Structures are given as structure tokens and as C-alpha cells.
Amino acid sequence: MDRRTFLKCGACSLVALSGPPRFLVRTAAAAESKGKVLVAVFQRGAVDGLSMVMPYGDPGYAAARSSIALRPPKVGERDRAVDLDGFFALHPALAPLIPLWENRALAVVHACGSPDTTRSHFDAQDYMESGTPGVKSTQDGWLARAVKALPAAPTPFRAVAMGPTLPRALQGDVGAVAMQSIERFDVRAGDQTARHGFESLYAQGVRDVISGTGRETFEAVKMLKTANAARIAPADGVEYPRGQFGEAMKQIAQLIKANVGLEVAFADMQGWDTHVGQGAEQGQLASRLRDFGGALAAFVRDLGDRMADVVVLTMSEFGRTVAENGNRGTDHGHATAMLVLGGSLRGGRVYGRWPGLERAGLFEARDLPVTSDFRTLFTEVATRHLGVPATTLFPGWKANEPPLGLFA
Amino acid sequence: MRRLALALVALGALTGCGVPATSVADGAAPRPAVAPPGDDRAILHALGRLTFGPRPGDLERVRTLGVQAWIERQLRPETIDDAPTERALADLGSLRMSIPEALRAYPRPDPQMREKLQSGQLSRQDMLEMYPPEKRPYRITAELQAAKMLRAVTSERQLQEVMVAFWFNHFNVFAGKGDVRWYVSAYERDVIRPRALGRFPDLVRATARHPAMLVYLDNWLSTREDFVVPAGPNRGRKAGLNENYARELMELHTLGVDGGYTQKDVREVARAFTGWSIERPQAEGRFVFRPAMHDPGAKLVLAHRLSAFGGEADGERVIEILTRHPSTARFIATKLVRRFVADTPPPGLIERVAATYTRTDGDVRAMLRTILESPEFWSEDTYRAKIKTPLEFVASAVRALGASVDARGAFELARASAEIGEPLYQAQPPTGYKDTADVWVNTGALLARMNFGLTLASGRYARVSVDLGALVAGADRRQPAAVLDRLLATLVGRPTPETRAVLAEQLTNPQITRLTPDDRASADTDVAKLAALVIGSPEFQRR
């Protein structure tokens, strides 16, 4: 119908043109969703992978860090790193994750990172989220590409980021939702008139990006209300750590339990840039890790059996220097450690080749070198857990290393 | 909207056969120039594109002055008195500081402070006395955010503010990276603002030398290969080439990503800029050329040869090559047309604006004239075709309500812009914020816009005072339809019949009309709620 015909037709064609929201249109072609969920967690600021998952079996670790090295694990002593496999140990603040390790629901990929050598937080985050190291012109994020490659589904909640804006990783043409909180995801007025008014305004009019998204918005608001997502409390005895990250993980669990069709969720946590006074068993890094590990452990317990369908993947733009600096902290480095939790994981193992901390083998003689490209890990999680075809995930890249073998 | 547009006979004539003069540029493609139509729709269109949105009374003021004369005035901001805005900015002291002054006034925190606090060596109270919030570096960014919002809302030099925001975004620096936070105020004030309607090559030259850009894109650390750091904490370390600035200079500032350069050109440009650095970044923060860091060899940039030992002039020569390149003319033309005309810029207009660039050596004012004299700018398809960015949306709502704002209120509004997705001066990537609808329209952001409308119209932003009574002055509040029409006329000028119809339906709701069944005379229409609905409506998201 051209515009003139449309104009002649008047009001009746308005109804015809307004149409259903985009996600409902996609239903026609939808295959059965597998109900799998991937939760991506970004540790912004570059976490010190070497103290998060400590290579106590490598003499180079303690040697390089006179005041901030963790002490090696010792059975029966509290406030010590917890042994994983006789070589690596988990930071004591991450002790709540140990039951997962024992159940093989937690895997670590160490010396993981980007082939790009930038030590700029913002460039490295950009590259990790676009999935194209060294290329800034990439328009969409790797998680958006993952969602796009999955069969369509009749829900506005396929991809959700907790926060005020869409992270780079979810930007792209998939209608991802950015929300600050489930409770606030509504028209906030004392009575219903404002919401009804807005809804009518967006229901009318031409099919354009604003009205279309507006209709999706009210579908989403209603779906959340119907599912009563805000009322879904954490499982008995589960308490999330206070703070922004614990709150985000709690709400992602609510969305999963509310069965609103979530496929990919994104949360981030700041405060890993420990240049000064990093601390060891206690201190700055320990308190961040306590919130981080506490929230992940609560999330897993909260979801219970449902975790079989959920994988949590943590990432950070790069790691930190092997040696401590003059301020009892660490500077920007290269490789770090990433965690994978849940699903049908072959956990209880530290994956990736350990390059050793001897100076001669370090990247630029100071940093942990990357032995596993982050895209190898991300590809494996997206293809094996979500069932995304690998072809479109990381444009211009072909893996030149074997898969890690994370999944059974 | 379409129906309304088609009904405008005068405009039909304009787009149809171009009644006004058609001129042919010297050697360039023919440029059909049109005079702006004088009808209200055209005035609202001009206000929507050249300002942060019309205030009550603007339509009448431009009508009286004439669109053409008003545009000419906006193109000459120095002729417009803006004293009230300048007075409102007086509280924001950091705006007027030089870089060394800012470095002294907002010292970086004592690295041991956190430890001392945790160990109890220092009480919170002592800490606050030693290091009060108003002395902390984040204040600089906060004041800049407030200033940008305040100017967007109150400045009479609207086009200048639009262009300052445009060029800042084009030459984006991120206030959160390293020492940029101490430089960013000076960067906008000394580099961007004076040249916002000047010549594009001057903008490139000035941004290239400013410490904010030198830090943001790392050029200050870029050296010839095998340079050994002679002193300081990194003494003895081998430095080398950093391609960051060279790449972005070509990709984002001048040629565009498909502008015809190669990786080899990136290396060569990076070599040309080695030695462009910063003198004492944490005390002075001014440009310095360091010959020892510079690569003295010959370079080949886009087939232009730079002979050996060019020194500091190498960089200048590169900027000259880049800013005279036809790809740059087209890239800058495309961005301007996208800002002022449509997300998908009409190719014919891009070519004509690019021709103006080439003819005038990148004169911004001349390029804007080419756009404002184009049939594409005034075409019916262009009317309300752009989605407002969060900054544009927030500022336009405050302006539409005729609200008055001080610096603190402006800071609250800047926070609102962040909640809707655009934290000011916080764009991390060098691309800045995108200027197309796709990034700004998502479910969470739309809800945030509706909720902003509700909060603003009900007067719940501190230091942003809204006089709803004045807004509907003259309309009988016992006549809901009259109130609605008055409100729509003030807030959107010419609403679409659909928007009007939906809002009229709301008038059947007793919670909005506050009509009592037994006594209609006691009605007192809920103007705040109606205003909020208008601000959150699809139509108000467009300009």
C-alpha cells in the first residue's frame, strides 16, 4: 500500500498498518526454543586473574608479589586460598563457589584473553564485547549476533541487560531489553491512567521504530506483570550480597524462574582496577571478590535444578601485571582467568595451557601471556550450550586452536 | 502527519519545481537553492533541527522575525546576547579554569586514603575535611554536564550549542580515561566551542594538539621504534609506535572507515605524529613536541611523500593531506546531513555539501547553508523524521514546558539524560554517541522517557520549576478539550490528528478531567498528567 492509498483509507488502515510487535511477527518462523540461558558477566576494570585463581604451584607467583601474594592453601586453616587441583587455588573470598567445583559445575579457563595487546580498558572492553579485537567499526555485539542466530521466539525478553543502557555486547538488531530493575520496569505513576494513556498513544499510528518498540515495551511490561516476576522471591535460605551486582543476579534469576523466554542475560560489575592497595586474603580485591562470588553462589543455589539449563560465563577485558607495583597494587596486564558455571559442564578443571610465570615467557616480559583466545571460549559456550552456529559469531576470525572441551 | 504535510500547498510547490532561485556553483554540481517556506510547520521544523526544541512563544518570535532572518542570526551566535545563560553558569567555577588551575583545584586522591580509612587510621570525618567532595576531580565532569544541559535549555545561541555538541561528539574524548578529566573542560571551551561554526581543518588541527585528545587516543606516548625512555618511572623501557590516534584520525575524524587508507597509511601517519606529546601532564598539561621521540625518517601518506627530518611539521602536513581529501569532504558532509536531515542521508545532498566543503576549505557555516537551502531539508519526508537523542529529548521537554533551571537543576537533568541512555561526556569509544534512531530506541529507554515526562511535568525535579498554569493560560480548566488543545499547541505546535484523538480519549477518564458526576463546574483538568503524556508520546520523541 502506498502512502496515498493509506491516507485515503483513513483510520481503518491505521489499524491494519499498526500490526503486532516485532517479536510476534517472528513467531511464524519460530522453531522450538531449547530453554537454555546464557548469563554473561563482565568484570569491568580488568580483574587480577592471578589472585582470583592463584597458581600457587608456580614459584613465580609469590616471587613477584612481596606484599600482595596470597598464601598457598593449607588444609584446616581458615582465611587461606582453597586448593583446586594441587596447582591452582581459589581466592578465599570465592570459597562459596567450592561446592560447585566439587560438583563439577564450575570450570576455570586460565591465561585467557584477547590477542589484541591494548592496555586501554575502554578499547579492550569494546573489543571483547564486539568480539572483534582490533576492529572498532563493528556495529553489533557478539551476544546480539548469538541471539540473532537462534530461532525466533515470541517474547520480548530473549535478551536482557541489567542496567540503564544496552552494553556493546547486546547492541544490534535483536530488540534486547535494558532494564534497571524488574520493579521499576513500568510506568511509574500513582494510578493506572498514565500507563493506559501512554499505551494508547503507542498503539495508534504508523508502524515505525518508535511505535513498534513502544508496543513491545507494553507487551514486556504486561508479560512481567502476568508472570509476576517481581514477586518471585529467592529460594529459601538464599541471600544475595547487597549491592548492584547481587541485585542484578537476583533479578536475572527472577526472570529465568518467571519463564519469560530469556535466552541471554548480561550483568556487569565495576571496581577491579586495583592499581593501589590491592590487598591479599583481605582488602580491596577480596571485598570485590566476596560480592562477586557470593552473588554467583547465591544465583546457583537460587536456581537449583534449573541450573542444568543455565550457564554463567565471566569475563574481563584483560588481566594485571604479574609483579606488584610500587603502590601494593597491580597495573594493566594481558591474560586473565574466566569462570564458567552450570549447564552440562565438565567442571572441576582448570582449562587452558599454563604458560608459566618465568620472566622470559611473559608477554612483554611482564604479563601473563594469552594461551586461550577469548573467542575460543565464547564460541564453545555459545555453540555447545545455546546451540548457536559458530559461523556468524566472530566475523573475520577462524579458530586456530582446538576447542577447550568444556562440555560433555 | 502525512495528511497535514500533503495539505500544505505552498510546500508542495517548493519540493515540486523549486520556485525560488537555482544557482550553479563554480564548477560543482548544480545546487538547487530554496528559500525557507514561511509557514508554521516550516518554522517548527527549523526550530526542531537548529535548536534543542521550541519554547513557548518561539514559533511566534520566528514568525515575526522571518525564518530566513532567524537562521542568519543563529549562524552568527556572536551577535546574540546570551548574558542570562552566562550568569547562570557563573556558579560552575571549573568551566573557567586553565588546565594547571584545574589540576591544582581538584587534586587526585591520596592513594593511601582508602587503606587508612579501612584500617581506622583516618576517620570518615577527617577524610571529608581533608578531601571534601567539592575538591574531587569528578566535580569537573559534573559541572561540565550541568553546563551542557543548562546551555541546551537556556542559551539563545541554540545552533552554536547544537554544533558544539556535534563536534564534541565527532572529536569525542572520554572524561573517564586517565588525566582527560582535568583536560576536558578546556578542550570543549578552547578547542571545540570557538570553532564550532568555523573551518573543519582548524578543528582537526586544534584537537590534534590538545592534551585531552593526546591522552585519550594515546598519541602522547607514541614514539619512534627503539626509543628508550630516558627518565622517570619507566626509565630504560623500550617504547614504540602507538597507532591509536593515527587510526582514529583517519577512520573517525577525517576520511571515514572506507575513505581509502591502508594499514600502511596508519603506520606512516602514526610515525608522522611521534613526538606530539604533553609537558608535565599532571602539573602543566600543555602540548609539547619532543624531537627525541620523533621518527625522523621520510614517510609516505596516501601517496604523498613527506621528506625526512620534517619534525613537528610532519603532523601538520598529514592534517593538510587528510582535510583536503575528497573522502573527508564526503564523510563530514554525510555526518552533517545525518544530523540535520535524516538517518539515511540523501546522496544528492551529501554531494552538494561535500562540494561546498571542497570549495570553502571546510567552512562549517557554508556547509550548513547548503543544507538549509536544500529542498531535501524542507521536504515533507524530513519533518519529524529524526528521533531525539536523550540529551535532545530532555532539553526539548524542559524547553517545551518553559521551565526555568539553575545549575543544580541542570545537573539533575543531566542525570536524567544518563538514565535514558546518554551520560554526558561519558562516551567511552572514540566514535562518540551514535546519531541514529536504532541506538536510542529500546524498551527500557522508552519507559525511562515516559517516566521522565511524569517526573518533570509534576514538578518533581528539584531546581527545575515548571509553571503549568502559564502553559495553559487562557484556557478554561473546566473545559478539558480546551486545555488539551492549548497544551498541544504549546508543546508540539502542530500535533498529528492521531495524537490529538488519543489524548482526547483520555479526557473521558475522570482521573484526568477530575470532573465530578454531579457538578461538572468543579472540573480541574490534570494538566501535569496530560503534559506528561505528551512528553512521553511517540510524536514528542521526534524532531
How would you summarize this macromolecular structure in one to three sentences?
The complex is a heterodimer of chains A (408) and B (543). Chain A is of the alpha/beta class and 408 residues long. Chain A has one domain (37-186, 241-392): Alkaline Phosphatase, subunit A (3-Layer(aba) Sandwich).
Features:
heterodimer; A: alpha/beta; nine-stranded mixed beta sheet; three-stranded antiparallel beta sheet; 12 strands; B: 543 residues; mainly alpha; two-stranded antiparallel sheet; two-stranded antiparallel ribbon; globular
Fold blueprint:
The complex is a heterodimer of chains A (408) and B (543).
Chain A: H1 3-9, H2 11-18, H3 22-26, E1 37-43, H4 49-52, E2 53-54, H5 59-64, E3 82-83, E4 89-90, H6 98-102, E5 106-113, H7 121-130, H8 142-149, E6 159-162, E7 177-179, H9 193-203, H10 209-227, H11 244-257, E8 264-269, H12 284-303, E9 310-316, E10 336-342, E11 349-351, E12 372-373, H13 374-386
Helix pairs in contact in A: 9-10, 11-12
Chain B: H1 2-7, H2 9-17, E1 23-24, E2 30-31, H3 40-50, H4 58-65, H5 67-75, H6 83-88, H7 99-105, H8 113-119, H9 124-130, H10 138-154, H11 158-170, H12 180-192, H13 200-209, H14 211-216, H15 244-253, H16 263-273, E3 276-279, E4 286-289, E5 299-301, E6 304-306, H17 313-323, H18 326-340, H19 347-360, H20 364-372, H21 375-378, H22 390-400, E7 404-405, H23 407-419, H24 437-440, H25 443-457, E8 464-465, H26 468-471, H27 480-491, H28 497-506, H29 510-513, H30 527-535
Antiparallel strand pairs in B: 1-2, 3-4, 5-6, 7-8
Helix pairs in contact in B: 3-4, 10-11, 10-12, 10-22, 10-23, 13-17, 15-16, 18-19, 19-20, 22-23, 22-25, 25-30, 27-30
